[in-house]
Amino acid sequence: MQDRFTGNFTQQEPIPEAAIEAAVAVLRSGRLHRYNLVPGEAGEVALLEQEFAAKLGAKYCLAVASGGYALGAALRACGVGPGDRVLTNAFTLAPVPGAIAALGAEPVLVGVTPGLVIDLDDLARKIDASGARCLLLSHMRGHLADMRALMALCDAAGVTVIEDCAHTMGASWDGVPSGRFGRFGCFSTQTYKHLNSGEGGLLISDDAEAFARAVILSGSYMLYGSHLAAPGPEVFERVKYTTPNVSGRMDHLRAAILRPQLADLQRQCDRWNERYRVVEEVLRGTPGLTVIERPPAEAFVGSSIQALLPGWRAEDVQAVLARCAARGVELKWFGAPEPAGFTSTYASWRYAEFPPMPESDAVLAGLIDMRLPLTFSLEDCAQIGAIIRAEVSAVYQRQAAE
Ligand SMILES: *Cc1c(COP(=O)(O)O)cnc(C)c1O
Description:
Layout: H1 17-29, H2 44-56, E1 60-64, H3 67-77, E2 85-89, H4 95-102, E3 106-110, H5 120-130, E4 134-138, H6 147-157, E5 160-164, E6 172-173, E7 176-177, E8 184-188, E9 201-205, H7 208-218, H8 233-239, H9 252-263, H10 265-283, E10 290-291, E11 298-299, E12 304-308, H11 314-326, E13 332-333, H12 358-365, E14 367-371, H13 378-401
Parallel strand pairs: 2-3, 2-4, 4-5, 5-8
Antiparallel strand pairs: 1-9, 6-7, 6-11, 8-9, 10-12, 12-14, 13-14
The structure holds pyridoxal-5'-phosphate.
């Protein structure tokens, strides 16, 4: 086995030829704006919405400019406004608390378990203590909490759930697709997620009135009649005068790129999981490292993999990162004192104030994370796993010898 891995952790696969052809046809038409249609034409955006809604079993779907935009529109469509408190995960990515802050609302963080999901006991406590009426639930890195228990808790407390499914497109809990538990499910089609249109987002819902608000918010003007996965005009009549236009539409070019990828989503998810299982298998049993056991009810998409170095000193985790990096393996670390690249923790979201969360801090301090792009072969994944295993073992033995 090679000493050094030479692949690129941010290299995605090329856009499929069918998607390129569809994109070129849109460019040739000159009609890129979603509402620029000729008589009888549905348009790529409305078709994408219809296909995505059907795939997820949702009544309604709206395509927007980004995943972060989808989160903000969902929050606003659910009535969140300035000064409101919104519960969300302590372990998530910066656009999640950012979407709350953008509305002038206040994020209230809920702790993370060693299984990397939201801590339901802490959620119950924070619902009581904060009086918040909305949970923006982030299925961070594709880990799904016990969604039946979570929904029972939130339903009983009158808390509206909005799901951030940026890492769970194609995943499900107990047979129910991620995004189908809350009032809204929000997805990203940014390059590093499960469909790639550069930037983009999708929102699904069964709630006619909240969904109509999201459509008007996204910048539909009074052209919502051309949507194919939306409620009837009578619902829009009820909300159109009281909902502002906060433009964040998707265009036909991106939708054209996404539709062929959506048709192939299941196969891609299976390929991610093959890669995930190879790395997981090699890592399992590494001294000093804990793999994250996935619950049987969770059908996940292994587009990234996480592991814990529980109780490790920061300098030892840093030594592992440095040794892996020297062998071409890029690990992210959620215990780092400073935000780096896409990775940050709540300690650096200083526009809001958070009480200390020592149990979550202990989890994050040992949390390492790695992307698994589909450009990696199964042999690549075995090599990467072996490198991590060797370097974790070496540092662990050095610690033990001290
Ligand atoms: C990427 C991401 C988002 C936001 O998606 P964008 O399309 O980049 O705005 C939201 N939540 C999580 C967990 C993400 O990883």
